[in-house]
């Protein structure tokens, strides 16, 4: 009898612990499958009108030897940041990351991006209901998908 109660309680506990993981697994499919940066922004934020902001610090190399692991660091001093998106404009699917921040979270992001070639990389931050953007071009020496020089890959 005690064994059945133990197994029942373990099963209930496991179900309660796994339920939040299922909720966190939802993602914005239309935003990540968009072929254009503005389409991805409209799908992720409901609009694509952005304004430039010097309060967003975007750190990434201007020249990347290999396009498959380009380090990116983003931080901002904008107040009440709720979401942040990373876009690689010349990738087949430009939206690379969409992060949702809690009310007390520090709006910082560090990751690595895969670039199919030289491209403009942008970060869009939603702060106080407005969208702000900062961008930087990155020149890729080797193609991230094929591993050959980027200029030769285009010809």
Brief sketch in words of this structure:
It holds the Pfam family SoxY. The protein has 155 residues and is an alpha+beta fold. Helices cover 26% and strands 38% of the residues.
Q: Could you name the key traits of this structure?
A:
6-stranded mixed beta sheet; 3-stranded antiparallel beta sheet; Ig-like SoxY domain-containing protein; Immunoglobulin-like; alpha+beta; 155 residues; SoxY; signal; 26% helix; 9 strands; SoxY_sf
Structural notes for this entry:
There is one protein chain. By secondary structure, the chain is α+β, with helices and mostly antiparallel strands. The chain has a single domain, classed as Immunoglobulin-like (Sandwich), CATH 2.60.40.2470. It is built from 4 helices and 9 strands, in the order αααβββββββββα. It has helices at 2-24, 29-32, 37-45, 150-154; strands at residues 51-52, 56-59, 63-66, 70-76, 81-88, 95-100, 108-113, 119-127, 130-142. The strands form 2 sheets. Strands 1, 3, 5, 6, 8 and 9 form a 6-stranded mixed beta sheet that branches. It has a 3-stranded antiparallel beta sheet with strand order 2-4-7, with no helix packed on it. Strand 5 (81-88) and strand 6 form a beta hairpin. The longest helix is centred in the N-terminal third of the chain and has 23 residues, at 2-24. It is elongated. The protein starts with a helix and ends with a helix.
């Amino acid at each position: 009898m005690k064994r059945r109660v133990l197994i029942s309680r373990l099963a209930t506990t496991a179900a309660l612990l796994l339920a939040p993981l299922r909720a966190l697994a939802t993602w914005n499919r239309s935003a990540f499958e968009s072929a254009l940066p503005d389409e991805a922004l409209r799908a992720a934020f409901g609009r694509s009108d952005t304004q430039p902001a010097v309060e967003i610090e975007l750190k990434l190399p201007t020249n990347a030897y290999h396009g498959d692991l380009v380090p990116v660091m983003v931080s901002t001093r904008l107040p009440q940041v709720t979401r942040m998106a990373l876009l690689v404009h010349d990738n087949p699917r430009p939206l690379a990351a969409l992060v949702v921040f809690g009310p007390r979270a520090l709006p910082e992001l560090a990751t690595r991006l895969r670039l199919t070639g030289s491209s403009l990389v942008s970060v869009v931050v939603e702060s106080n209901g407005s969208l702000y953007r900062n961008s930087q071009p990155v020149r890729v020496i080797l193609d991230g998908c094929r591993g050959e020089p980027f200029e030769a890959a285009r010809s």
